[in-house]
Amino acid sequence: MKIKDFPQLDSIEKIEQGFESFGYICSTQIATAVFLAFQLRKPILVEGPPGVGKTELAKTTSQLLDLPLIRLQCYEGLDEAKALYEWKYGKQLLYTQVLKEKLGDLLQGAQGLAESVERLHQFGDIFYSPDFLEPRPLLKAMQQDRGAVLLIDEVDKSDYEFESLLLELLSDYQISIPEIGTVKAKTAPMVFLTSNNTRDLSDALKRRCLHLYIPFPTIELEERIIRSRVPDIDDVLRHQLVQFVHSLRQLDLKKNPAISETIDWARSLLLLHADKLDEELIRTTLNVLLKFEDDINATQPELHGLISEATAR
Amino acid sequence: MNSKLLSFIQILRSRDVRISPAETLDAMDIAAVLGFSNRTFLHDGLAMALAKTPEEKATFSQCFDQFFTQKLLEFSSDGELSAGAEGQAAESAGFLPQGAPSRPDNAEALLQTAAGENAQLQTLLDSALMQNLMQNNRNELSLALNQAGERVGLAQIQMFTQKGQYTRKMLDELGEEQIRQAVIELERDNSPALPQLQRYRDILREQVRDYVEREYLLHAEGKNKQFMDEILSKTRLNNLEHHYLHKVHDLVRKMAKKLAAKHSRKRRVNKRGQLNMSKTIRAGIANDGIMFKTYWKQVRKDKPQILAICDVSGSVAAYAKFLLLFLYSLQDVLPKVRSFAFSSHLGEVSDYFVDYPVEKAIELINWKYGGATDYGNSLLDFAKLALDDINSNTTVIILGDARNNNGDPKLEIMQSIYQRARQVIWLNPESRRAWGTGDSDMLRYQSACHFTAECNNLTQLERIVDQLLKSTSTA
Fold this sequence. Notes:
Strand order of the largest sheet of chain A: 2-5-8-1-9
Helix content of chain A: 40-55%
Largest interface: A-B, 34 and 37 residues
Number of strands of chain A: 9
Oligomer: heterodimer
Strand content of chain B: 5-15%
Largest sheet of chain A: 5 strands, parallel
Distance between the termini of chain B: 52 Å
Structural class of chain A: alpha/beta
Number of strands of chain B: 6
Radius of gyration of chain A: 26 Å
Number of helices of chain B: 21
Structural class of chain B: alpha/beta
Shape of chain B: elongated
Shape of chain A: elongated
Largest sheet of chain B: 6 strands, mixed
């Protein structure tokens, strides 16, 4: 991946604008991270609370660069057979059966076991060749001619061993397959790893990545996001609802409403033809924002104060 | 420029931010790509390479502000002053008669006339230092300060008592001695230029003092903390002053994290396991011997279970607290910890740790179960609650001083625990010499334990938990 191939990533400002044209409003910090990742060819490890647009960042980058997005969703028990590559065992077995008859022809005239084996050796390891290799997301990302955006989603959900598996890929953009050798990336992909912080990632993994923490956005930023995602909404209402969500995040909740929930809420309010916030409206739509019964109940007594706070400004 | 970056990284390291050489290289690349002209970009960029947890980010921001406020002007080639440096310089420049432009001329004139009569003063006035002072040339001055700081090794400062010493060294390095000499001479001559020169001297001293103070905060704070941590981890836990407790909590959490990182890396048994050939062939018979479907030997792995029994009577409560804090900070590697607390009677307290944060839970437990100790009775309670759950995967940890107030020790219960469990560990905060003296039943209980240890400070505790993790994870 050469710099001149992607003028979209020339400068931090350009990245910001480019993201915005695809409806992803980001802070300078995020743009700086993408800029650096590209300049230094380093993976980015994105952390932050759920729903702040970690996955979206990778998606938008792939749109911006017009590269395929290859996604690997991590979960407990994910192993190399599902992430890197697998041999097509079925195909291998089937071929051995089909080729059984051919074997007779091949070995015709061979005298004794030693010579037969000798002859077979001449054919090499045909069953362990790229033809029998089933590429999984990580290997696939290496094989793209123009490069790719590789998203390794929720890497904290995977096991520790899987992290070690990633290390070779992340530092050298290559994968070792014992039977074939080292597969180097045709073009180094742009790698995003996301984590929800359910457990601490290993230092080895962190060391190889740039670390980007995306917090909940500031009020201004969130308003811009809503404006770009829900353009039809009234200015006053938008300001009020963002204000309200922000004060909700100050409360001690099990799960804070994320940006995606703010967007959903803005859309629902739009559908209900609301033009300003009032208590009745919020009570009926609060379940869009808060996903736990406890949280909804805990918010009820505060509601009045929050609303007057949000509508005051 | 890179050496400044390195000393910045040194400071971060002294404040517990872990930075590897590879990350240092990254930081240098980043600085080269972004340049030093834009503070926000530089801050964000370096943070991505150097600080990788929220806590580290906070430390990073704080240090970045402290460090680059004074030093950024050296970096930027266009000599652009950062806002902080300007403010600081302006503050001390308040001594300079900025408001009345006629006065410095006047003062200079006075000094110049005095210099006309005194050759030594003339050379002094021509010196770079004095020129800078008189023209209030902040950039040059702060550069000179930094260089002098480097020469005297100010970055090595550790104690606040060293501040005076370093200030003196800095002044000597800057050539303040000449000014002092000149002041003495002017005094002798009773020259009218004396107050002027004295003022310049005071300004210089003031600047140097400020500079040393800033560097002290930057460099020594981290080192002092490390020193403190070292002392704390070797102090007997019940001798700790109350106001150090929160520091110890942080320390325990740090230690626990280290241990967790160390032991969670243990290679686990591969989940899928090896090809189960016989089963695969058997399944293939139906397909004329073609083995379409592969079967794998699955390995079942039992997770180790830990039962922690803690004496929370007055004499041992402090230790129990830290043991529990340790065990519950290790949730990642020790997911199945059940805890019991006792003094006169025993109860399971695991639920407290589910419902409350660890510190709060420990407080509640101490309050509920504290009292006079009765080991026999408590062991009976324990047998009722949990004896049936003890199997060959269970490790039982007992923390107590075994001082039974001369009651029945109920050794037979201990023995049945001993027989069932994988291992029984007894931690005793008393020193080995005191075991078995007075009403201590330790020697008797010891016969029903796989392992006994003295445990009264954090270092010992850490070592024991380390061993515990080693023995459980090889199960």
